[in-house]
Design goal:
There is one protein chain. The chain is α+β, with helices and mostly antiparallel strands. It folds into 3 domains: 16-212, no CATH class; 232-291; 293-398, no CATH class. Helices cover 51% and strands 15% of the residues. The protein has helices spanning 16-42, 51-88, 102-114, 118-145, 160-171, 176-184, 220-258, 263-291, 301-306, 386-389, and strands at residues 152-153, 197-203, 206-212, 293-300, 310-311, 319-320, 330-333, 339-343, 355-358, 368-372, 378-383, 393-398. It has a 4-stranded mixed β-sheet. Strands 1-2-3 form a 3-stranded antiparallel β-sheet, sandwiched between helices. Strands 8-11-10 form a 3-stranded antiparallel β-sheet, with no helix packed on it.
Length: 399
């Protein structure tokens, strides 16, 4: 139920142009969200959504639109608070300015009524109005969420693929092969952060998934923009450093002809600059190797458990633990080689009975293949899904 906005004395009617601007922004956001949601639910060449799935999709789209509006309102409040502090040199005493209690609203209304400075009165009134807007929007979000199945609240260390597969396999009882097929043709979102809400829908052999901000301090769109910006900034910085070094070399070559008496000194400086370029190139090669390699710890299962690399129990599935990267002391550059070999003698075994890779979302015969020789003295592990293993840390349990 939409709350009625509190009436405050001494508040002038908001200009119509601000109202129009607000609805223009909302309309633009709605268009963007509809386009994104289309591809998330439809997937590559996907079938037309059923009425039930479409209804769920539209409800989630409304939630995401409301969350975007809430975040916009909150940003506006922060701007007003900064202007207020610049004007007065003080912070407002209210604790949670984004969610004022009725008592706090009364205090603020009284402060507005007694304020003599017109500009400060306007700041305070804007804060009160936007607080009412935020509370109304939050109430509407809660109403819409009540119409949907319970979402998954993202916790630290989770990824979208794991959550989707767990939903289909454990909550809906979908066959594993069919679950993998449904997830494979669905657009997943990475990275995800704690507090995100992931909405999973399954009906009539249709699967859809959508992400909203939930209680996270940052929105999914902001995450994507941040990741993209970091990559672009790193690339621009490397190019700028290389260009600067090349410019320095060219400048030294010019000075060399003009200052022949300092030839030895200039040549030394030139070599130093070339060395820096070489170091940058070496660093780039190392970074490329790191990005395209899989890091692994390979040992007998009991040793991996003893060292705290994997953990499991009688009633719990075995999982890869968060340990120091130094524990993954071997690596394989997947740009040139896709095979990992092991011999029973290396592990004081008479023969190798089984090989398992952790984390368990790496599946045998889909992501990797295990081949034994006839006597089970040697084994070859062939990586099938190269991209999935790149930059990953895995444990290989030998039994």
């Amino acid at each position: 139920m939409t709350q009625e906005k509190a009436k405050v004395p001494a508040k002038e009617k908001e200009p119509e142009k601000n109202s129009r601007k607000f609805y223009y922004v909302i309309g633009a956001l709605a268009l963007v969200i509809l386009v994104l949601a289309y591809f998330v639910f439809k997937g590559p060449a996907g079938p037309q959504l059923s009425p039930k799935m479409k209804q769920m999709q539209e409800t989630v789209q409304q939630i995401q639109l409301l969350e975007s509006s809430i975040q916009e309102k909150q940003n506006e409040v922060f701007d007003i608070l900064n202007d207020y502090k610049t004007k007065t040199g003080e912070d407002l005493p209210e604790g949670n300015i984004m969610n004022l209690s009725p008592e706090q609203k009364k205090v603020l209304e009284e402060k507005i009524k007694n304020e003599k400075d017109v500009s400060i009165k306007s700041f305070l009134q804007d804060i009160l109005d936007k607080n009412n807007d935020i509370q109304n929007l939050n109430a509407r979000v809660q109403e819409l969420e009540a119409l949907l199945p319970k979402p998954h609240m993202v916790e630290k260390g989770e990824n979208h693929y794991q959550i989707a597969m767990n939903f289909l396999l454990n909550e809906k009882g979908v066959d594993k092969a069919r679950a993998m097929e449904l997830v494979e043709r669905t657009l997943l979102f990475e990275p995800i952060v704690p507090g995100f809400k992931i909405w999973n829908f399954y009906a009539e052999d249709e699967y859809g998934t959508f992400i909203t901000q939930g209680s996270a301090p940052i929105s999914p769109n902001q995450i994507q923009r941040k990741v993209k910006k970091e990559l672009v900034d790193a690339k621009d910085k490397a190019i700028a450093e290389k260009d600067q070094l090349q410019s320095d070399i060219d400048e030294m070559e010019l000075r060399r002809s003009e200052l022949i008496s300092q030839l030895d000194l200039l040549n030394q400086e030139k070599q130093n600059m070339l060395g820096k370029m070489s170091n940058l190139n070496d660093q780039n090669q190392e970074m490329q190797a790191a990005l395209n390699s899989v890091y692994f710890a390979m040992d007998r299962r009991k040793n991996l458990t003893k060292n705290g690399i994997i953990k499991g129990g009688f009633l719990r599935s075995t999982k890869l633990q968060k340990v120091d990267i130094a524990m993954f002391d071997r690596s394989l550059d997947l740009r040139g080689d896709y095979k990992i070999t092991a011999a029973a003698a290396d592990f004081q075994l008479s023969k190798i009975k089984d090989v398992t890779i952790y984390p368990s979302y790496f599946k045998q015969d889909r992501d990797y293949k295990v081949e034994f020789n006839e006597a089970h003295q040697n084994v070859i592990i062939t990586i099938l899904d190269i991209k999935k293993f790149m930059s990953e840390k895995i444990a290989i349990a030998i039994e």
